Amino acid sequence: MNDQTRLDAQQRLTSAAGHIRGIERMVADDAYCIDVIKQIQAVQAALSKVSTLLLDNHLRTCVTTAIQGDDADERERMLQEITSVFTVTGKK
Amino acid sequence: MNDQTRLDAQQRLTSAAGHIRGIERMVADDAYCIDVIKQIQAVQAALSKVSTLLLDNHLRTCVTTAIQGDDADERERMLQEITSVFTVTGKK
Amino acid sequence: MNDQTRLDAQQRLTSAAGHIRGIERMVADDAYCIDVIKQIQAVQAALSKVSTLLLDNHLRTCVTTAIQGDDADERERMLQEITSVFTVTGKK
Amino acid sequence: MNDQTRLDAQQRLTSAAGHIRGIERMVADDAYCIDVIKQIQAVQAALSKVSTLLLDNHLRTCVTTAIQGDDADERERMLQEITSVFTVTGKK
């Protein structure tokens, strides 16, 4: 993972963790359920951005190296992994 | 929010926040990007369960009270809110 | 289902079916895969709008009748159904 | 697109179009809204499978060729496209 991606991902994850602690307080304070659901949806969207960052980085590093390399099994594994996270995202 | 829902939601949110701190460590340790993405997808799924808990509770309390009440505007507001979180969930 | 909802839903479904036939032609013509995926995503989004229409209508008719009625089992069934389609949507 | 992928995608798309026509009939027959929504969710899931098929094929053909090729701009375009369909899928 390049430094920029790592830093960006860490900042977003720290923010998401803080956001969830805020939602915990909303629940403790008996906040309106719909407002809490909307905050959860916002955190889920923010987490999706981290996934996209990491996928982009992965495509440019590991996947590119594998596709340019000679190890057909390694290449096959990498391509299946991308399809699998794409599939889970479609079901998330 | 009834006590059971609040307790359950809080436990799941605390677990999700902890899960994200674990993902932060994965990123700091330069873990394999696909593994990190899969952990993010797991947290997002866990957060969806909290939303479902809260929606179920909301339907049985605030929405039922509003639909059984005489305030048509209040009822309208409640029904639109459910449709809006359903729509966002479909786009999440 | 009220007439407006039925008409609106039917028009959107007819359009979605036509859109899919267009995508079939793209595949037959060996169109660029990413373009085909984007068209599929557009149809899925259009279908989500139909679901939202139907949920909104359902809330205002069957659910309201059940919640205002005396049949606790019927009410319970209705509330569980809403939570279940919300859950599936979150996983879709 | 290889023949197997094309055939598979076409069969699934034809099935999805037929499924939607069935849903149109459900709406015309004033079927229960929740049942209709569940059928729509089933079609959306079936369409996601077609997207996954096409992405898998795209990774093995166009993306592999571009990454093994010398055209850096072409490679960049391909990688951005994958990230963009991943992002839209996460928001679908």
TrEMBL record, chains A, B, C, D:
Pfam families membership: Trns_repr_metal (PF02583)
Superkingdom field: Bacteria
Matching CDD domains: TthCsoR-like_DUF156
Single Gene Ontology BP annotation: negative regulation of DNA-templated transcription
A GO molecular-function descriptor: DNA binding
PANTHER family per record: COPPER-SENSING TRANSCRIPTIONAL REPRESSOR RICR (PTHR33677:SF3), TRANSCRIPTIONAL REPRESSOR FRMR-RELATED (PTHR33677)
Protein name per the record: Copper-sensing transcriptional repressor CsoR
Organism: Candidatus Promineifilum breve
